[in-house]
Design goal:
Helix content of chain B: 55-70%
Order of helices and strands of chain A: H
Structural class of chain B: mainly alpha
Number of helices of chain B: 10
Number of strands of chain B: 2
Helix content of chain A: 40-55%
Strand content of chain A: under 5%
Oligomer: heterodimer
Distance between the termini of chain A: 21 Å
Amino acid sequence: KEKHKILHRLLQNST
Amino acid sequence: SHLLLTEPTPLAANQDDSTNDSSLRTLLTLCDLLNRELLVLIGWAKQIPGFSGLSLVDQMSLLQSGWMEALLVGVAWRSQGVAGEGLVFAGNLRLDEGQCRAAGLADLYEALHHLTAKYQVMNLSPEEVVTLKAMALANSDADPVDCLESVQRFQDGLHEALQEYESSRREQHRTGRLLMSLPLLRQTADRAVKALLRLHHHRHVPLHKLLLEMLDAKA
């Protein structure tokens, strides 16, 4: 998922 | 009613002033708006009932394939009832056919104008718009799906909500008509993605990181 790191981070961020 | 409450406030465009070329300025302004809309869309998706219950892999897949469809439902809705033929990307960013063509977005204009006209004839209600947007995401045909059962449950919940809403209005044909409008939405989104990728690769229009990441996922 390295290629999609921004989306991954935004989804993991609970706020 | 939950979707109506969580519908984000429409964003305003920030006029780009990095260039004197007015068509490039339009394009950069639009891309900046789309990038910020994507951020809002991802936050909005998490609030759709059932979305957060999906695996992280499925959440990512649905957003990667359905984001443009969900964004275009918003543009087509904002463009309803506007005098003339313009597309309303934001309250302060309305583009007519000539402006789109000058910015290299003639194909996007044609596709979106068709979609907007279709929705206009259907005379959508706000309830239908927010449900359509959520269904576009749920129905994005991401492949592969990690947990098909959860994704289907997510789709079923939205379908059920739409059916309940339409039966409360005694509009038995509306659910089918809305579902039958999804292929045009898919087609319009594909053309929009291709147009932006073309501008980025052939005309070297710089794009924000998130927008580029999401476009690359569709490439």
